[in-house]
């Protein structure tokens, strides 16, 4: 069999991303146009502007509204305003956009339709602190949570209870209008209430849970935030609230969709694909070493899969930051895999974020070849030491194996592929 491993893996990644693009997924889920009232489009996330562009291009009548997305992730919308803000740590532009969005939905009627477009990244981009909480405090807590190793569900539970717009509050502000929320999922399990902290959906989590998460990860809690959570002032609207009765939501793209598209691409190339999981969580370096052990078992013994094959997985791992290096969770995963494989022949890998940004860096992720460790060593770089320093970006940059795709304007989180020949 003749195959170029690096190009093959790059093609799988491109296919996975295209399968969960707004252009591909949205049209079938757009509701019928409201005959009597206004159609207002709101939303947030790294792919929200691309979703808004699809609405403009396909909607039969007039639309208006406001979308907030990450810097560099905008789209050429004519009727719907697109505001760019910071991610993963919120900034003033995001705070102002969130405030304007709440004002925009005031005074709607039962005849109006609100189309809410949500993708991953919306939690940071739609950042409006609760009463008595400053933006600077939310920024500090965000940074602490990102470094703590907390899962996305845990982080978003905290965010909901410190917000004036997330956790269903934006949905309540739209009442009595009908709200249709379309979501591209970036969370393991695809819980719509976790995606971007569920701004238009009722929330079953509590202030007490939020407080317990902050204590679990030993995050310093300012006195006013402690009081906000202990008093229940940050409580969110709950399932069963009649004000959500007319609303509906649809998760239109997930990690599973991306993995299935990549699997079909692999089959067409004559490589048998195996989808390991679409919602893996855990420490990136631990997940990397487990994947390496599986790949070595396949390569040496043909168990549990016969080679040639490609092992696919998705989800969202975490990094507990202890060092001072650069790199997101995909680079960390891949460097851990590289260290564990230590040059084992005929095993190649790719790990990228489907939004095109690995954490806060400029790369989507990286690729690994059997000679990656040797090439790095020849250039004076110690892979194990760089892993301990959380410097996956530095390692793969040094050997020329970073993957820089630019913003993809969608987001179903991590995409990992390990090719065993």
How would you describe this structure to a colleague?
By secondary structure, the protein is α/β, with parallel strands linked by helices. Helix content is 38%, strand content 18%. It has 16 helices and twelve strands. The protein has helices at 5-19, 22-25, 48-58, 92-104, 122-125, 135-148, 152-160, 169-174, 207-216, 223-230, 255-268, 284-301, 329-341, 372-378, 383-388, 392-398, and strands spanning 39-44, 64-70, 80-85, 113-119, 178-184, 248-253, 272-280, 309-315, 347-353, 365-368, 402-403, 414-420. It has a six-stranded parallel beta sheet, sandwiched between helices. The chain has a six-stranded mixed beta sheet with strand order 7-8-12-9-10-11, sandwiched between helices. Strand 7 (272-280), helix 12 (284-301) and strand 8 (309-315) form a beta-alpha-beta unit. Helix 1 (5-19) crosses helix 11, helix 7 (152-160) crosses helix 9 (207-216) and helix 12 runs parallel beside helix 13 (329-341). The longest helix is centred in the last third of the chain and has 18 residues, at 284-301. The chain is globular. The termini are close together. The mean pLDDT is 95.
């Amino acid at each position: 069999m003749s195959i170029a491993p690096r190009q093959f893996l790059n093609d799988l990644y491109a296919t996975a991303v295209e399968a969960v693009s707004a252009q591909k997924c949205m049209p079938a889920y757009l509701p019928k146009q409201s005959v009597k009232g206004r159609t207002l489009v709101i939303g947030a996330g790294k792919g929200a502007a691309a979703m808004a562009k699809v609405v403009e291009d396909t909607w039969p009548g007039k639309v208006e509204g406001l979308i907030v997305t990450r810097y560099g992730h905008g789209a050429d919308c004519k009727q719907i305003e697109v505001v760019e803000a910071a991610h993963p740590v919120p900034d003033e532009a995001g705070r102002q956009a969130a405030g304007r969005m709440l004002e925009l939905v005031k005074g709607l009627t039962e005849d109006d339709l609100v189309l809410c477009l949500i993708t991953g990244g919306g939690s940071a981009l739609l950042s409006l602190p609760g009463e008595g909480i400053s933006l600077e405090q939310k920024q500090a807590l965000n940074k602490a949570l990102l470094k703590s190793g907390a899962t996305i569900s845990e982080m978003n539970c905290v965010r909901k209870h410190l917000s004036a717009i997330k956790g269903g509050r934006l949905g309540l502000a739209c009442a009595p209008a009908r709200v249709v929320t379309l979501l591209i999922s970036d969370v393991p399990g695809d819980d719509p209430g976790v995606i971007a902290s569920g701004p238009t959906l009722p929330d079953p989590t509590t202030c007490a849970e939020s407080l317990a998460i902050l204590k679990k990860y030993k995050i310093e809690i300012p006195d006013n935030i402690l009081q906000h959570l202990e008093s229940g002032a940050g409580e969110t609207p709950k399932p069963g609230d009649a004000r959500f009765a007319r609303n509906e939501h649809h998760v239109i793209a997930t990690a599973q969709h991306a993995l299935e598209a990549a699997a079909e691409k692999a089959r067409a190339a004559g490589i048998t694909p195996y989808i390991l999981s679409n919602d893996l969580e855990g420490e990136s370096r631990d997940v990397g070493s487990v994947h390496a052990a599986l790949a070595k078992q396949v390569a040496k013994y043909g168990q549990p899969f016969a080679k040639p094959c490609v092992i696919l997985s998705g989800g969202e791992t975490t990094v507990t930051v202890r060092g001072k290096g650069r790199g997101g969770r995909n680079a960390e995963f891949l460097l851990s895999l590289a260290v564990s494989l230590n040059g084992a022949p005929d095993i190649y890998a790719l790990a990228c974020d489907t939004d095109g940004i690995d954490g806060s860096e400029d790369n989507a992720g990286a690729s690994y070849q059997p000679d990656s460790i040797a090439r790095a060593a020849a250039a004076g770089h110690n892979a194990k030491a760089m892993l301990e320093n959380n410097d996956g970006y530095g390692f793969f940059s040094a050997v020329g194996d970073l993957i820089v795709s630019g913003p993809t304007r969608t987001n179903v989180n991590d995409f990992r592929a390990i090719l065993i020949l």
